[in-house]
Design goal:
The structure holds 2 protein chains of 2 kinds.
Chain A: E1 2-11, E2 14-24, E3 29-34, H1 40-47, E4 55-60, E5 63-64, H2 69-75, E6 76-79, H3 91-101, H4 108-117, H5 134-148, E7 152-156, H6 164-179, E8 183-187, H7 191-197, E9 200-205, E10 208-214, H8 220-231
Parallel strand pairs in A: 3-8, 3-9, 6-7, 7-8
Antiparallel strand pairs in A: 1-2, 1-4, 4-5, 9-10
Helix pairs in contact in A: 3-4, 3-5, 4-5, 5-6
Chain B: H1 2-14, H2 17-60, H3 67-73, E1 75-78, H4 92-95, E2 98-102, E3 105-110, H5 128-144, H6 149-154, H7 156-161, H8 167-199, H9 208-235, H10 239-268, H11 274-287, H12 297-310, H13 322-360, H14 365-375, H15 380-408, H16 421-425, H17 436-442, H18 444-466
Antiparallel strand pairs in B: 1-2, 2-3
Classes of the chains: A alpha/beta, B mainly alpha.
Chain lengths: ~230, ~475
């Protein structure tokens, strides 16, 4: 579903990403681990076509992202570290707007049930987003993925800054999407969540994917050891 | 999808205190300006009607007198005030409202509103044109400067762009949202002006078609400013940079360029001062025929020619009074001199206009200003049209009076008194203003420049949104 082929990116000669290749299949959750500046966000931005690759290509459903930027975006849903919405609009209005832009015109009931499925309390639906917590905004992001019927999920440190309960709720939502066959690429610092929800793990260092493994190959302690080994 | 974006833009704006306050202030200013103008217009118009009647009464109620004395006594031509001048007063304030019509002299219009005002009022009246031309563009800028920058600063642009919206649709939606917000302020103003203009009594004519065309030109002008605002918002990295840049553009376009163009035009082809103009006319007059001086060389020459033509030996034998005839010939001569000098003024005016045309390339304000004044019939062209009509009437009047004198009296009979019925025989001054189709065809240039502004800024908008950085 998601494929990086020798994906490279450099900014003014500074290499940010160096020939990274991996594949994320339907129902997989691929967790990118690594220090800040290792190239995790760059990888996600390349799949969003927010930046042009310097080499290689990013494919979604076999389509090159840079050549079919609008078509590939119809398939994906993106949740950044801090999902920002329009503060003067309600959660429901925000969802209706973004879902409308992606071309899936949904009626109010469908959108409301998406919000509820994403775990947003019903009485918050009609409240302005300016009153929302970060966790509530992330839920609107998940609701958007549900409403769009996204086949690909791109997550950039979605649980950082969430309290453990909210973080846990988010992981459960991810599991729900995983069971629907959504292919997920997630950048994260949370080794525990990566082991819990992830199916695959990639460790990045200075723009290079230095390790790829499946989560059933390794336990949490060994994962931490492996990670630290690469970082030092 | 464009509608979805436009609708969301509007919804956000309407929920924002800043926009609501600004929109309220705009509508309030427009209402106040319209009411002030309407009262002023009605006051001037009442005076106009009274003065016009008085002038005619004074003229026709003259007693029996020598026709040339009546010519010196003179009368007045009053420039009609048009209902659309309520929207744009143009140069009316400085151009004068009535012309004194007398023998031997083409007078300038006098009684300018500006003469009666204190220095402080030079800084701008609260008139609809001031709000329409200066303040609404500012309102567009203040409403839309952060249209793109705030999305980038708040991080919503990433989510927006991750939905797979093409930049064409995004541009269309943003544009429409901002423009509709402007319309929310303009349309009440438009409806109000229709109601006010429709209710003013005693105006010459009110053409809703002309008002609609005027409205259309203003909409073009606002569309240009909407484009510029969004171009800068897409291009700027930060909202405050966008705001400062747009305010600078506004100052250059609306305040700087008009003044600079004016200075350049004035230095490249200056108008003569009043005294220079009068001196030049007098110089030419001295060289030619004087109706009051039968002993000058020119008069003697005309005498010889006339005697030859009628095959007589002396002016006494002519079938008409030589004095009256000479007077008319002198009048025709002066009229020609005035015509020549006014044509020179017109040339100067045209030279200055071409400077403004060039400056219009740098300021969408200029073509709009000229179009607005032209349609409200308050530009110089309209004033000249009136002044020429008044001069034509004066020439006709002098011709009638002098020829009556020549045909009904004998040579040397300066005591001849014409019957007072003669004054009524001279028709009242009536004036047909330039038609709207003429106005439009003589302003094709300004219309073209305004449309060129719209097309150019639209293209710039497409490009800048396409190239806009998301991160």
């Amino acid at each position: 579903m998601l494929e990086a082929k020798n994906l490279s990116k450099s900014y003014n000669g500074q290499v940010a990403l160096n020939a990274v290749s991996f594949t994320v299949n339907k129902g997989d959750v691929f967790c990118l681990l690594g220090a800040n500046g290792a190239g995790k966000t760059t990888t996600i931005n390349l799949f969003l076509n927010f930046v042009e690759p310097s080499g290689g290509e990013a494919l979604i459903n076999g389509l090159s992202v840079s050549k079919h930027s609008l078509a590939t975006k119809k398939l994906l849903s993106y949740i950044p570290e801090s999902l920002m919405l329009y503060p003067n609009l309600t959660g429901l209005e925000n969802l209706a707007y973004f879902a409308g832009l992606s071309g899936s015109k949904q009626n109010k009931e469908v959108l409301q049930s998406a919000l509820s499925d994403a775990g947003l309390q019903v009485d918050a639906h009609a409240k302005r987003v300016s009153t929302y917590s970060k966790g509530m905004r992330q839920k609107v992001g998940v609701a958007l993925a549900l409403a769009k019927n996204a086949e690909v999920l791109l997550l950039d440190e979605p649980t950082s800054g969430l309290d453990p309960k909210a973080s846990n709720e988010f992981s459960e939502l991810l599991n729900k999407l995983k069971s629907r066959g959504v292919a997920t690429l997630m950048a994260t610092h949370d080794l525990f969540r990566a082991k819990e929800t992830g199916t695959h793990i990639g460790i990045m260092k200075q723009g290079t994917l230095v390790e790829q493994l499946t989560t059933d190959q390794i336990n949490h302690t060994d994962l931490e050891k492996l990670y630290l080994q690469h970082m030092n | 999808m464009i509608r979805t974006i436009a609708f969301k833009e509007l919804k956000e704006l309407l929920r924002e205190g800043r926009f609501r306050v600004m929109a309220f202030v705009m509508v309030a200013l427009l209402v106040v300006a319209a009411v002030i103008s309407k009262n002023y217009y009605q006051w001037v118009n009442n005076q106009h009607v009274t003065a016009k009647e008085n002038a005619r009464n004074v003229w026709v109620s003259q007693d029996n007198k020598n026709p040339h004395s009546a010519a010196h006594y003179g009368t007045y031509a009053f420039k009609p005030k048009y209902s659309l001048s309520l929207i744009d007063q143009g140069v009316d304030k400085y151009a004068g409202i009535s012309i004194y019509l007398e023998a031997h002299r083409r007078n300038d219009a006098q009684y300018m509103a500006a003469q009666d005002q204190t220095a402080i009022s030079r800084f701008g009246d609260l008139t609809p044109d001031f709000i329409l031309l200066f303040i609404i563009p500012l309102f567009i800028i203040l409403t839309g400067f952060n249209s793109f920058t705030s999305e980038r600063e708040n991080g919503t642009l990433r989510l927006l762009k991750s939905q797979g919206v093409s930049s064409r649709i995004l541009t269309g939606g943003k544009w429409l949202g901002l423009f509709i917000a402007v319309l929310l302020v303009i349309i009440p103003g438009f409806i109000l002006s229709v109601l006010l203009l429709g209710n003013v009594q005693d105006f010459g004519e009110f053409s809703i078609g002309a008002l609609a065309i005027l409205f259309l030109f203003y909409l073009l002008y606002y569309a240009v400013f909407t484009n510029i605002t969004l171009v800068v918002s897409a291009w700027a990295k930060k909202s405050n940079i966008a705001l400062v840049s747009l305010l600078a553009i506004w100052m250059v376009a609306c305040l700087g360029m008009p003044k600079v163009a004016n200075r350049i035009a004035e230095s490249m082809s200056p108008y003569p001062t009043q005294s220079q103009f009068v001196a030049a006319v007098q110089e030419d007059e001295r060289k030619g025929l004087d109706g009051h001086n039968p002993f000058s060389a020119e008069a003697k020459q005309l005498e010889q020619e006339t005697l030859k033509k009628y095959n007589v030996d002396s002016v006494q034998q002519l079938p008409f009074n030589w004095d009256g005839y000479l007077m008319q010939k002198g009048e025709e001569h002066t009229a020609e001199i005035y015509f020549k000098h006014h044509e020179q003024l017109k040339t100067t005016y045209e030279n200055q206009t071409s400077v403004y045309r060039v400056a219009s390339v740098l300021s969408p304000y200029l073509p709009t200003r000229f179009l607005s004044m032209a349609l409200c019939r308050t530009d110089y062209a309209s004033h000249w049209h009136f002044s020429n009509a008044a001069e034509k009437y004066r020439i006709m009047m002098m011709d009638k009076l002098n020829m009556h004198f020549a045909e009904n009296s004998t040579y040397g009979d300066w005591d001849y008194l014409a019957d007072k019925s003669l004054w009524k025989d001279i028709p009242d001054f009536t004036y047909e203003p330039v038609t709207y189709s003429q106005i439009l065809s003589s302003n094709l240039n300004n219309i073209g420049v305004l449309i060129a502004w719209l097309v150019t800024t639209s293209l710039m908008l497409m490009v800048s949104v396409k190239k806009m950085s998301i991160l």
